[in-house]
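Structure in, sequence out. Go:
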């Protein structure tokens, strides 16, 4: 594929899971991909012919440094994937203020800071492409429906959902499309955290909890990182040129009922 040939993409939280799968998929589609995480994903960058650096998405100074780096090392930016995120499954009455604040610092403030920092770079190159520039924010099915034990996570991912819609309207005149992706439970480290959380809250064993996590999805199984990466590549491409402010739900049918 070469549908993203000539484009420059940034994927945050790219060390593994959905982030790493997305970086590989964007590179396979022809993009030059920059990958960041708390520890620079150098091996991934070497594998895909991209560039890497360390990056704390909750730091305003780090975002300024990353955009300077992108301009100097890559020549700009066409696609931003705000993927970095944390998961929390815990009864509300047992959740500390520090846990709430840390969750929102990464899941919400990281998306805010990234979008604000990247828009000037994206606007510079948006006219080059029929579909303009693209921001894809990782929300969750938990940003659409609630569940017991995930109220704080629901709040953070619901915030990403509506932040995305507001930005889509604000940046449409600059030809920057902004969409959100809403995964179900995916076979990643975070997916393993979900299974562990189900086990902890229900008292079930890990195998039973895993079966419960799979059964949540009408399709009968958890998703793969590639399922989400494919959706992101589509949203980044000109095939999605008339999509902005949209919710791409990739959840095995969980929110259909």
């Amino acid at each position: 594929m070469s549908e993203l040939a000539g484009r420059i993409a940034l994927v945050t939280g790219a060390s593994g899971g959905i982030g790493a799968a997305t970086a590989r998929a964007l590179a396979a589609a022809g993009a030059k991909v920059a990958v960041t995480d708390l520890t620079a994903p150098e091996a991934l960058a070497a594998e895909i012919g991209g560039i890497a650096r360390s990056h704390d998405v909750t730091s305003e100074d780090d975002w300024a440094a990353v955009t300077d780096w992108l301009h100097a090392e890559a020549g700009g930016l066409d696609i931003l994937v705000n993927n970095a995120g944390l998961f929390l499954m815990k009864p509300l009455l047992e959740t500390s203020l520090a846990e709430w604040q840390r969750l929102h610092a990464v899941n919400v403030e990281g998306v805010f800071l990234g979008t604000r920092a990247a828009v000037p770079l994206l606007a510079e190159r948006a006219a080059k492409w029929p579909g303009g520039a693209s921001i894809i924010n990782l929300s969750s099915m938990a940003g659409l429906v609630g569940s017991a034990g995930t109220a704080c996570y629901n709040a953070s991912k619901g915030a990403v959902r509506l932040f995305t819609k507001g930005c889509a309207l604000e940046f449409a005149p600059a030809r920057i499309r902004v969409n959100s992706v809403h995964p179900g439970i995916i076979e990643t480290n975070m997916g393993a955290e979900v299974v562990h959380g189900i086990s902890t809250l229900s008292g079930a064993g890990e195998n039973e909890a895993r079966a419960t996590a799979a059964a949540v999805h009408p399709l009968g199984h958890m998703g793969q990182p590639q399922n989400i990466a494919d959706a992101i590549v589509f949203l980044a491409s000109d095939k999605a040129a008339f999509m902005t402010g949209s919710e791409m739900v990739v959840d095995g049918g969980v929110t259909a009922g």
